[in-house]
């Protein structure tokens, strides 16, 4: 099938020009006039609706190299998509080239060496499934259709992080396609400066087409529990959680959310829409051991509803997949948090609203960090905020586009009300599309300047700028 052309970089990308890419590209090249274009351009966050000039579905590193070189020759802006989970929409671009790694999902496991080699487009579920076959695992996120690449490059925390460190802490080596279309290996012994920056610096320095991870024995079972408290009594379990956090066993991950009850939760005796405080914990072990480890979270308080279960680690990794499905409209913004003061707890509970305001359309969450994350030196990787106890998130998900304005404004205001009680540091995967100052704050001035120098070396033209951008 032939077409007249598509616009790119303000000029027409002719069929002849595209033909030069076809000669060196083995995957699919999808343009706005091709069947399947609307499906190919979709990303996870339903608020992001962009129309790239071309989607290049890569089959391997050679395709990625060809796509980068073509984009630079043609003046096309580049977006890189792995799982497409960037809440800020960095995985796609209007009138540019989307380099889609989704077809590069291979995972190879060496059970004796306890290492896994993972292609750059693999999802967490693919990594978890292949490693579980050998009774092994490495830190991944909490939604199985998230891309391994974006998660790891931003740091990557999940249920194993407090025991084995972040995803980036378990990275052994990476294959990287650079802005000039070259291919490098980064590790502790090769291109060490780049290896440092890849571990928390996001997608600023190149396209990672392959990851080598260190693996650990997978837990034979995982215990989980959801505790629901009335908002009127909710500050007490929050106090208990904050008191417990610095001393919690590393096998225990926990979180707190102030949220309105949803119908799909099926909670007995609590009406849909009622505000609750939800304390969730997951323990790498049996239900009995988990209940003992989490005892301080109860602090003598009886939850209105408790839902407990024991399951496999692989099942735990997919628990949130339905609620985090593709296509919902989404927003979140985060900052790292220490142990919150009493005023901070009250602000967290209020969700940015005043007495008498309508019920907020957004939620707040505190996710536990610490443990093995904090045992890595602050300057050992680009990831910043090793001393944080929690990741605070202001977040919302919805379906009706008519709610966009209220949802976005309210969730941002909630985050603003929490800034006196949180750190300027932030998990870069939770940043929205913000300017240089916010990114600088997320890393801290000295680390940010080191990242700028690295950017000047590996991407002086800022080719890879659709990310939490570090400008050269």
Q: What tags apply to this protein structure?
A:
globular; Uridine Diphospho-n-acetylenolpyruvylglucosamine Reductase, domain 2; alpha+beta; 26% helix; five-stranded antiparallel beta sheet; disordered N terminus; Uridine Diphospho-n-acetylenolpyruvylglucosamine Reductase, domain 3; seven-stranded antiparallel beta sheet; 472 residues; Vanillyl-alcohol Oxidase, Chain A, domain 3; single chain; 3 domains
**Span from first to last CA?**
41 Å
- Any guess at the CATH architecture of the largest domain? 3-Layer(aba) Sandwich
Estimated share of beta-strand residues: 15-25%
CATH class of the largest domain: Alpha Beta
The strands making up the biggest β-sheet line up spatially as: 17-14-16-15-19-20-18
Secondary structure: number of strands: 20
Radius of gyration: 22 Å
CATH fold node name of the largest domain:
Vanillyl-alcohol Oxidase, Chain A, domain 3
Helical run tally: 15
Describe the main β-sheet briefly. Answer: 7 strands, antiparallel
User: Helicity range of the residues?
Assistant: 25-40%
Average pLDDT for all residues? 93
Whole-number count of domains: 3
Indicate the structural class: alpha+beta
Q: Note the overall shape.
A: globular
Low-confidence stretches: 1-12
């Amino acid at each position: 099938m032939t077409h007249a052309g598509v616009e790119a970089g303000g000029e027409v990308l002719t069929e002849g020009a595209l033909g030069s890419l076809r000669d060196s590209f083995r995957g699919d090249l999808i343009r706005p006039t091709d069947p399947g274009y609307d499906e190919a351009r979709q990303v996870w966050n339903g608020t992001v609706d962009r129309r790239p000039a071309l989607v290049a579905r890569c089959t391997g590193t050679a395709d990625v190299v060809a796509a980068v070189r073509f984009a630079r020759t043609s003046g096309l802006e580049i977006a890189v998509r792995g799982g497409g989970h960037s809440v800020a929409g960095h995985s796609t671009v209007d009138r540019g080239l989307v380099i889609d790694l989704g077809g590069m999902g291979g995972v190879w496991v060496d059970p004796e060496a306890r290492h896994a080699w993972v292609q750059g487009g693999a999802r967490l579920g693919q990594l978890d499934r292949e490693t579980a076959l050998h009774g092994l695992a490495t830190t991944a996120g909490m939604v199985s259709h998230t891309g391994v690449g974006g998660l790891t490059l931003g740091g990557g925390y999940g249920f194993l992080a407090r025991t084995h460190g972040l995803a980036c802490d378990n990275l052994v080596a990476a294959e990287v396609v650079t802005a000039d279309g070259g291919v490098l290996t980064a590790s502790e012994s090769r291109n060490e400066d780049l290896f440092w920056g890849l571990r928390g610096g996001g997608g600023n320095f190149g396209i990672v087409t392959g990851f080598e991870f260190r693996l650990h024995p997978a837990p034979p079972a995982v215990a989980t529990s959801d505790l629901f408290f009335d908002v009127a009594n909710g500050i007490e379990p929050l106090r208990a959680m904050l008191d417990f956090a610095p001393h919690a066993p590393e096998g225990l991950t926990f979180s707190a959310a102030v949220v309105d009850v949803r119908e799909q939760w099926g909670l007995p005796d609590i009406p849909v829409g009622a505000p609750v405080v939800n304390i969730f914990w997951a323990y790498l072990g049996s239900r009995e051991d988990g209940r003992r480890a989490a005892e301080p979270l109860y602090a003598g308080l009886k939850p209105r509803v408790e839902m407990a279960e024991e399951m496999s680690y692989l099942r735990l990794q997919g628990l949130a997949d339905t609620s985090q499905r593709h296509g919902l409209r989404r927003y979140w913004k985060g900052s790292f948090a220490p142990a919150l003061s009493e005023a901070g707890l009250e602000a967290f509970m209020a969700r940015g609203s005043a007495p008498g305001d309508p019920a907020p359309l957004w939620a707040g969450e505190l996710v536990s960090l610490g443990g093995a994350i904090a045992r890595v030196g602050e300057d050992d990787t680009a990831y910043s905020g090793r001393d944080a106890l929690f990741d605070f998130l202001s977040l919302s998900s919805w379906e009706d586009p008519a709610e966009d304005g209220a949802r976005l404004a309210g969730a941002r205001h909630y985050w603003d009300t929490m800034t006196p009680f949180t750190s300027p540091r932030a998990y870069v995967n939770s940043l929205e599309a913000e300017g240089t100052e916010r990114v600088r704050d997320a890393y801290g001035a000295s680390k940010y300047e080191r990242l700028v120098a690295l950017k000047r070396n590996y991407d002086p033209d800022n080719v890879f700028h659709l990310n939490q951008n570090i400008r050269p």
